[in-house]
Specification:
It contains 21 helices and no strands. It is mostly helical and 537 residues long. α4 packs across α5, α5 packs antiparallel against α6 and α14 runs antiparallel to α15.
Length: 537
């Protein structure tokens, strides 16, 4: 009810209290677990190295403060104030005149659904290579092993020729994910992060310390951190910084909206947001140190410069370059176990947050129990994921779908959210009031400017530039028909889901809801005693 710190939500079932984190620490660990994922380990070091080295940290930090944290706060404010998964929250945000905004929520749910399908495949690869590290099974040709023997990559198309070495671990990852989701927010998501996140940090710290004592490690660190100040004059470097921050914080596709909705009504929002954002960035820098210290050793072994190495980012870094390094270093199997174990844990904690976006949206739309929604979504996703990504064409499909879902889908989602919320619905001040009414760290009016002007301008630049490249140059030399089906077809799927799911009637209307605290705020009325004392004074 309005004015109360407790609520029941009609969209979750008649009179049933909404699931909640057990406390602030549980929420922070879960949010960090979501943000810290595969991209922190295999994307940030390469992006930093290619965009000015140590100088890249300046635009990176500016992007974090002017776009990353502001949009993170926007997600928190929407989810927490309107107490729902993304379709529910955006519908309530729009109010009676803007219920069409629910479609943006379903667009974000569809993005999470698609990402979940292929993200599990990468975790399955990491799990396989964790096992392979015991006997260094990739041998002297990691590239041939990964592409040929392990993935058995074929030509672009759609194949039903399954690869058992991928199918089995992929099925295991899906079973684990469904179990965690079915256990609920506190017993499933929170408990998993409370256990996995500290293990991840400890394992990765051990890996980094070991890497720092390898021959050539200093050369690798010099290659990463030596600043190229001239790069700061290149607009593409700044775009790369905003892109890295944007993709690494799990913002603008429903995760943080959903996670914030499980916080208690009286909850500090901005201070935990700062903890999450800076923890994520700290892990990225730690990953950069570990990765480039190891690459320095590899260059030392090859008697070449770090700049002459190939495969410094993405799956090739993880599944080709690192196995080659592990084969040459003392205690290689242990290093491999730490690296691929860290990759698996980082991926899994992010995966369950992605899947929770879908599960929560379906749960509230059809008034299902959390367990029913989790199992239904999980089983359907698992069947599709295994059918597409455990085949000989799985790698090419993954690469293509990821390119469009991330660089087109998520960026477009963020642009729509910031423009619609701030400029069309004029909700910026209300959300700023909500953050400030509950939090110790206060956000000023500049927050609305960052969210409403700077973020959409930069993101639109990113989106337009990427669309032009994809239209004029294609992608990775894949056939145009293939990119039309798996690339642009992915965007078409997102739009269709957004429209169709918005048209599906709610089992229990989410509109019987009053946001708390009240906005605009009403001045506190004096008590009768205060009135009498004021009259006598």
């Amino acid at each position: 009810m309005a004015g109360s710190a407790q609520t029941t939500d009609s969209s979750t079932g008649a009179g049933k209290p909404r699931e909640e984190w057990t406390g602030q620490v549980g929420f922070i660990l879960a949010a960090i677990g979501s943000a810290v994922g595969l991209g922190n380990i295999w994307r940030f070091p390469g992006v930093a190295y290619e965009n000015g080295g140590g100088a890249f940290l300046i635009p990176y930090l500016i992007a974090l403060l002017t776009a990353g944290i502001p949009i993170l706060f926007l997600d928190y404010a929407i989810g927490h104030r309107f107490r729902g998964a993304t379709p529910t929250a955006f519908r309530r945000l729009g109010g009676a005149a803007g219920r069409w905004l629910e479609s943006l929520g379903w667009f974000q749910v569809a993005i999470a659904f698609v990402i979940g399908l292929y993200y599990t495949a990468v975790i399955a690869w990491s799990l396989s290579f964790f096992v392979f590290s015991f006997d260094l099974r990739w041998g002297d040709d990691p590239a041939g092993f990964f592409i040929g023997e392990y993935l058995q990559v074929g030509d672009p198309g759609f194949s039903l020729e399954f690869v058992p070495g991928v199918l089995i671990p992929l099925a295991l990852v899906w079973i684990a994910a469904i179990v965690v989701l079915a256990l609920g927010v506190a017993k499933g998501l929170q408990r998993t992060n409370v256990i996995f996140l500290p293990v991840l940090v400890i394992a990765f710290l051990v890996l980094v310390v070991r890497a720092l004592f390898l021959p050539g490690a200093a050369d690798g660190l010099n290659a990463l951190f030596t600043p190229n100040w001239a790069a700061l004059g290149d607009p593409n470097v700044w775009i790369a910084a905003y892109s890295q921050i944007f993709f690494s914080l799990s913002i603008a596709f429903g995760i943080m909206v959903t996670y914030a909705s499980y916080r208690r009504r009286r909850s500090n929002l901005t201070t935990p947001g700062l903890v999450v954002a800076f923890s994520n960035s700290s892990f990225e820098i730690l990953a950069g140190i570990g990765v480039f210290a190891t690459l320095g050793f590899f260059a030392y072994q090859q008697e070449v410069g770090v700049a002459d190495l190939e495969g410094l980012a993405g799956p090739i870094l993880s599944f080709v370059t690192f196995p080659a390094i592990v084969s040459q270093m003392p205690g290689g199997p242990i290093f491999g176990l730490l690296f691929f174990g860290s990759l698996t844990l980082a991926g899994f904690t992010s995966l369950i947050s992605v899947l929770q976006v879908v599960s929560a949206g379906v749960q509230e739309k059809f008034a299902w129990t959390p367990r029913r929604a989790a199992v239904t979504v999980g089983v359907i996703s698992a069947v599709l994921s295994i059918s597409v990504f455990s085949t000989t064409t799985g790698l090419i499909a993954l690469d293509t779908v990821d390119q469009w879902a991330n660089n087109i889908g998520i960026v477009a989602s963020a642009i729509m959210a910031t423009v619609l919320v701030v400029w069309v619905l004029r909700k910026g001040n209300e959300l700023r009031y909500h953050l400030n009414a509950l939090s110790t760290f206060q956000v000023g009016k500049v927050w609305v400017l960052f969210v409403g002007i700077l973020a959409p301008v930069v993101l639109t630049w990113m989106l337009v530039a990427r669309v032009i490249v994809l239209i004029t140059e294609g992608y990775e030399g894949y056939p145009a028909w293939y990119l039309g089906v798996f690339g642009w077809g992915t965007i078409g799927f997102l739009v269709v889901v957004a429209v169709v799911m918005t048209m599906v009637p709610w089992r229990k209307s989410p509109d019987d809801f009053t946001a708390w605290p009240q906005y605009p705020p009403v001045a506190a009325q004096p008590t009768p005693g205060q009135t009498r004392r004021g009259a006598r004074s």
